[in-house]
Amino acid sequence: MPTRFRLVRVTTRTIQVRERASVDLPRSAEATFDFLWDPVSSFTISDSVDVAAALPGRRGLGEIQAVVERTPAGRVGVLHEVIEHEPGRRAVTRGLVGVCPTWSALSLEPLGPGSCRLTQEFWADLPAGVQAGMDRQLSAEYRRRLDLMMRRLGEWAGRQAPV
């Protein structure tokens, strides 16, 4: 029986995948930040979350947040460390597990009393040697997550009385 070979194209350099989305909300930046800071807000933003918690220890800068999500392949655990923290305005996390370095940034800009613009950004550095096209798959996944998050936050803010 002849041996069959399959060519797999791989990348030859690091590729950064970066996606961002914004939504204007009828809530103050502080109230929105406080809501999102609590990992339990993950249940509002996504239907696939089983567990969301901050690990005991540090609060704010250095805090570790854990989320367990359901995926088609089974449950996946994700850990994030807070590496930048400006209460009520901005937080940046870096992923502690995964095949490549990942980050996320949440920024809130007050637009007036009781309103703000929320911007969420996700990015990753795919190393050289990953299968070609992985950047497009990751970009599509980030877009899907951002679209869902923006829609869900709009629904959440619309149900709440302005603060």
Describe the structure.
- InterPro entries: START-like_dom_sf.
- It contains three helices and seven strands, in the order E-H-H-E-E-E-E-E-E-H.
- The chain is 24% helix and 41% strand.
- The model has no long low-confidence stretch (mean pLDDT 90).
- The chain has one domain: Alpha-D-Glucose-1,6-Bisphosphate, Chain A, domain 4, CATH 3.30.530.20.
- A hairpin with a 2-residue loop joins strand 6 (102-112) and strand 7.
- Strands 1-7-6-5-4-3-2 form a seven-stranded antiparallel beta sheet, with helices on one face.
The main β sheet shows up as: 7 strands, antiparallel
Can you tell me the CATH superfamily? START domain
Structure classification: alpha+beta
Rg value: 18 Å
At the fold tier of CATH, the topology name is Alpha-D-Glucose-1,6-Bisphosphate, Chain A, domain 4
List low-confidence stretches: none
Counting H and I runs of at least 4 residues, what is the number of helices? Answer: 3
Q: What is the mean predicted local confidence, pLDDT? A: 90
Helix coverage percent of residues? 10-25%
Number of strands: 7
Principal-axes geometry comes out as elongated
Strand content: 35-45%
Oligomer: single chain
**Cα distance, first to last residue?**
72 Å
- CATH architecture assignment: 2-Layer Sandwich
Organism: Asanoa siamensis
Protein name: SRPBCC family protein
